[in-house]
Each structure stands twice: as structure tokens, then as C-alpha cells.
Amino acid sequence: MAGHGANGGGEPGTPVIHVEKLSKIYGDGFQALKEVDLTIRRGEIFALLGPNGAGKTTLISAICGLVNASSGRVLVDGHDNVAQYRQARERIGLVPQELTNEAFTTVWDTVSFSRGLFGKPKDPAHIENVLRALTLWDKRDNRLLELSGGMKRRVLIAKALSHQPQVLFLDEPTAGVDVELRREMWEVVRGLRDQGVTIILTTHYIEEAEEMADRIGVIRRGELVLVEEKNALMQQLGRKELTLHLATPLDGVPATLAGHDLALAEDGHALVYTYDVTRLDEGTGIAGLLADLEATGIRVKDLHTRQSSLEEIFVNLVRGNA
């Protein structure tokens, strides 16, 4: 699927989208976005994570120029999306949540037509590349009404790629699809990124962000509360639990162990020790706990650790605890 990026693009890792103090207040006074600052790097997969109604779609729509921001600005590959709307918009492909209603059009015609909407000359070779990459080539003469839901979603992606954008927005790309199809879509998205397309996806599926993203942004009530490398996010906010299975059950946590963050579990047969992986000095914490257990005469027959998932981190952020 060569040659996706419009006009060649720039170096990977350089900013391709720059959002500055972007706000949106609707006529009824509802503030959907609150001074959002965000930079998207060329060639990354960025997941915008948040509950329904958090402002994900509004932010994407404002970047794409489909919603007029109340204040702030957006640069797409250096082009202001208001003052230079056409140049900015042609660098963007948008895959909406809703399936469009072009039931009687063929796959080939609808994708070709989308390219024409951007004033691009006909390029059958590019359309063929896109359809082959999305495993739609065999369906090119099928009308949309003959396709499965999963194939229709692929057609939406093909349409968004028809004019060779640098940036592809996917708004809830796997909402309402089964697990197998979701994994297929993930493969498609990875393939596009490998071709040099920058991907921004909104999702409320935690595993989608965890599986796909290089970086994650969390939006809550119109505010971007956190933007972080996924791996760093897991390390920074991930808490670990050490479960100690005891040889003899306890009625309560002994006073001699009060200095450790311990809770009794499994009807007294286990102690759960919670700790922050980033705040432990090498060799302390667990070693000190085990020494204190031994000094107290508590025998441990087994232990295992568990790191918090992105889901728990996300729930804490949305609740405002983190």
C-alpha cells in the first residue's frame, strides 16, 4: 500500500497535528472541550480514551474542521485548519462511527468518488492498492448492501484513505463488533501505521488502547487529563499487589506489621501487600516485609504478584483519584 502519505509528509516523530488551547462551548452553554493542548507525532498510533460523552468525538471533529471551535487553534502538518482549511483537511482521513447509507453503490465507485471529493485526479492504481490492503479487492464490484458489517467498516477506512491522507482518524472503530472482527481491525490499523500513516483512534475499550497505542490520552468532561507513553503510563500509575498465602490463617493484621500496606484476604488465609513499583528502592519494601513477617512468626507457603491493568488506571483517572 505504497504512497499513502499526501505530499510525502515529514520525518517520523515530528509533530503532524498541533492543538493549542482548543475550547468548544455550545449555544446552550455546555462546554464540550476545555482548553485542550495536544501534539500528535508523525507515524504514531495515538489512542484517545474516555467514557461516552467525555468529548472524544467533539475533539476529533474540531481537529478535522467539522465543528467550529470557540477558541484556540489547530495546525495540521503546519496548516491552520481554519485559515487554510483545504490544505489541512486534505491531509486528514476520517472514519466516522456511523456506517453511511450508500447501499446501492459499489465498493469501487464509493471509494473512487471519495477521492474525487478532495479534487484529486483519478488514480485507479492507488484505489486498487487500498482495496487490496483492506482485503476488499474481491468485493470491489459488490454493492454496499451486500457486505457484512465488518466489510462495511473496511469500506469506510478505504474511503478515508482514498485521497492519500497523512493522518487517519478512527472514531470508535470497533464499537459494537465482535472480538474476532476487532482483532482483524487492529491488524488493519497496524498495517496502515507500517505504511507511514499516523493513526488517531478514539475508544472506550481499554484493551484497544492497551493493545494498539504508542501513546494514550485520557479525556474527562472535555479536559485532557493525561497524555503519556503507554508503557510509561503502565509504570507510573501501575500498582502491584503481592499476595502472600499463609500456612496458618490470621484473625487480623498484627500490629508489628502496621508499617506496611497490608490487607487480610481469603478469610485470613492470605495477606495482600499493595505497593507502587516506581517508589520502591531496589531491595527494599518486599524484602523488609518478608523479614518482618518472619520476625512475627508468620509462615508464608506461597506468593504471587499482579500488576494493575490499564483498566484500573483508567477507572481511577475518570473518577479523579489519580
TrEMBL record:
Protein keywords: ATP-binding, Nucleotide-binding, Transport
Top-level taxon of origin: Bacteria
Annotated Pfam families: ABC_tran
InterPro entries: AAA+_ATPase (IPR003593), ABC_transporter-like_ATP-bd (IPR003439), ABC_transporter-like_CS (IPR017871), ABC_transporter_ATP-binding (IPR050763), P-loop_NTPase (IPR027417)
PROSITE patterns, per the entry: ABC_TRANSPORTER_1, ABC_TRANSPORTER_2
UniProt-listed PANTHER family: ABC TRANSPORTER ATP-BINDING PROTEIN (PTHR42711)
Name this polypeptide is given: ABC transporter ATP-binding protein
CDD domains: ABC_DR_subfamily_A
Record-linked Gene3D superfamilies: P-loop containing nucleotide triphosphate hydrolases
An example molecular function term from Gene Ontology annotations: ATP binding
Record-annotated ABC transporter domain positions: 17-246
UniProt source species: Billgrantia pellis
Classification via SMART domains: AAA
